[in-house]
Design a protein that fits this description.
Number of strands of chain A: 0
Radius of gyration of chain B: 20 Å
Radius of gyration of chain A: 23 Å
Oligomer: heterodimer
Strand content of chain A: under 5%
Largest sheet of chain A: none
Number of helices of chain A: 13
Distance between the termini of chain A: 52 Å
Number of helices of chain B: 10
Strand content of chain B: 25-35%
């Protein structure tokens, strides 16, 4: 290969797209939007404020009870975990719920439909960009969590892995839910309201109904009771954990850990760990399916003029 | 290049286009003339794979819009009547985005964008956001956007709509230069007057049916306007012309010689194929646009 050819190849390699331009476009749109800066500021203030509050309350309490100091690290870690879950539930739908409501975006979609990237590309990259924003926000409490770990809290890693797993998958699902609503409803307020209603429904109402009715019924079956799935009481807890809201899952897990120290021989904790793996997987699958449905819906909208 | 065979489309359960058969020659500038609901715009959307035919088929570059929409999309560039774009992007970013979507290699994009901006005479606006552009500039930018993937067929929806006469002339020049590049340009127009001097061929649509097809002169000869309205006025005729050319029912406008002094009475002969309601709307439109109207009457 001549030096000229090598130079041309080198130049071409340097100009290659390391990130798809549509994704870069969506990310830049989000980053340049004033709401993003506002959200970032509020989230940072909430994290720092919560950590400071826990630290101060712990130190004031230590004047009366010296053992209060040992509660600071677990409290801080658990607060961050709950905040992350709350963020995933309450911020993610809002990031995407108006994504396809405006005529301008639908016009751009029609043009993108004619390109090889297609509507599928536009929708998937919107989902990825919105999810990336939540990932950035979820990463922000890591310093506080890291400090808690340095303090040496044995049960925290399991809770943190549970939190991270469920927060990431829940934010994926709820971003997809927002996209889905914006694909069907063109009024911004209505799309946002329906996305939040669905998110809250998924988080709180549905799991409670399913957990109480279905698994309580199963637990009473004679061949299940005391069998491989454990006692009825354990089973209901396990089932509630696997199907319940992300926040409830983490809190239930944390509650279990209070009474059951972490070890690989602790079956309740292991069952709990498996349950949130399944829950996360279900959220990933459901979110992906919702994005697919949104693509189909928007293709129909574009083709029907 | 573009063939349409027995094509019918139903819209909201109603037949909107019925048994249209036509052939668009390669390299021609082909006007689909008619009001929006007459079927020309719908045919353009079918060719752009943005609407599905109920019966019949159409082929672009030998590919069927029914069975091979992806291949058809690779052959076309489509621009809608009102350019809808992300106004926060700069002109270069807008074109680069579409170049990337059409999988133009990254190392070719900068040169391509420069060429397209030069063609649209927007080189100095390269890094300016689209929101600063005037409507004619946006139209030109959107028009050159259709060239990003170098398609042989351009499908343009009402390219002259919402433009003043001067901007229309500029855009007509750009369209002619695209024809000269060997592109087949298919565009929708509200009346035959706009097709004169721009289109080599036209197809005339009325209520979802193809009424006439052929060379522009041939169709004009076959379908002469039903009546002539005489518009007598004072002042500059350009405003009146822009109003008339975009008005419903107006087929052609004959203007007085440009040498006439500004304050003399000018008579515009308007070939008109609309009904009483359209004529009434046209008169109201002229009155409200500030034209110094002296009389508005049918030629006997």
């Amino acid at each position: 290969m001549s030096s000229l050819e090598a130079s041309v190849l080198e130049t071409r390699r340097a100009q290659r797209d390391w990130i798809h331009p549509l994704l870069a476009y969506e990310l830049r749109r989000r980053a340049q939007h004033p709401t993003f800066t506002l959200l970032l500021g509020m989230w940072l203030a909430l994290i720092i404020g919560s950590a400071l509050l826990i630290y101060l309350v712990g130190h004031v309490g230590a004047q009366f009870d010296p053992e209060a100091l040992s509660g600071i690290a677990p409290s801080a870690a658990l607060t961050m975990a709950v905040l992350c879950i709350a963020l995933a539930i309450f911020v993610s739908p809002g990031l995407t719920s108006t994504a396809f409501c405006s005529e301008r975006v639908r016009g751009m979609l029609r043009l993108l439909h004619l390109t090889p990237a297609g509507i599928a590309g536009a929708v998937w990259f919107k989902q990825l960009a919105a999810w990336s924003v939540t990932v950035v926000l979820l990463v922000m409490p890591l310093p506080v969590v890291g400090l808690s770990l340095v303090q040496g809290v044995p049960e925290q890693p399991v809770v943190l892995i549970a939190t991270a797993s469920i927060a990431l998958s829940a934010s994926w699902l709820f971003c997809a839910l927002g996209l889905f609503c914006s694909g069907f409803v063109q009024r911004r307020a209505l799309a946002t309201a329906s996305a939040y209603l669905a998110a809250v429904g998924i988080s709180f109402a549905l799991p409670a109904i399913v957990a109480v009715n279905l698994f309580a019924l199963l637990a009473d079956l004679p061949w299940v009771r005391g069998g491989i799935l454990g006692a009825a009481a354990d089973l209901i807890g396990w089932a509630g954990l696997s199907l319940s809201a992300p926040s409830a899952a983490v809190l239930t897990l944390a509650d279990m850990l209070d009474d059951n120290p972490v070890s690989f021989s602790n079956t309740i904790v292991l069952r709990g760990a498996w349950s949130w793996v399944f829950l996360s997987a279900a959220y990933w699958v459901a979110g992906t399916a919702l994005v697919g449905l949104t693509v189909r819906r928007l293709c129909r909208v574009v083709e029907s003029g | 290049m573009v063939e349409v065979q027995e094509l019918s489309v139903c819209w909201n359960g109603q037949p909107a286009l019925e048994s249209v058969t036509l052939s668009i020659p390669m390299g021609s500038c082909f006007g689909l003339v008619g009001r929006y609901a007459d079927g020309g715009a719908l045919l353009l959307r079918v060719l752009a794979t943005l609407a599905k035919p109920t019966r019949g088929d159409a082929w672009v570059g030998g590919h069927s819009v029914r069975t091979a929409p992806q291949q058809v999309r690779a052959q076309i560039g489509f621009a809608s009547a009102v350019p809808i774009m992300d106004e926060d992007l700069s002109c270069a970013e807008y074109l680069t985005l579409f170049a990337a979507c059409y999988r133009v290699p990254a190392f070719e994009r900068a040169a391509l964008v420069d060429d397209l901006l030069a063609l649209a005479e927007l080189t100095h606006w390269r890094d300016k956001p689209i929101k600063l552009l005037t409507p004619p500039m946006r139209k030109r930018l959107d028009l050159v956007r259709t060239l990003v993937n170098d398609p042989p067929v351009l499908l343009l929806e009402e390219p002259l709509a919402l433009l003043d006469p001067r901007a229309q002339q500029e855009l007509q020049g750009l369209l002619r230069s695209l024809s000269d590049l060997g592109k087949t340009v298919v565009l929708t127009l509200p009346n035959l007057a706009l097709a004169q001097g721009l289109c080599t061929h036209v197809a005339l649509f009325n209520a979802g049916r193809l009424e006439a097809v052929g060379t522009t002169e041939g169709v004009l000869a076959q379908h002469p306007p039903l009546r002539v309205i005489l518009v007598r006025m004072l002042g500059d005729v350009s405003l009146a012309l822009s109003q008339l050319q975009n008005a419903r029912g107006v087929v052609a406008v004959e203007t007085p010689s440009s040498a006439a002094p500004a304050q003399t009475l000018k008579i515009l002969r308007v070939r008109f194929d609309g009904g009483y309601a359209e004529a009434k709307a046209l008169l109201r439109q002229l009155q409200h646009s500030g034209i110094q109207l002296v009389s508005f009457e049918e030629e006997r």
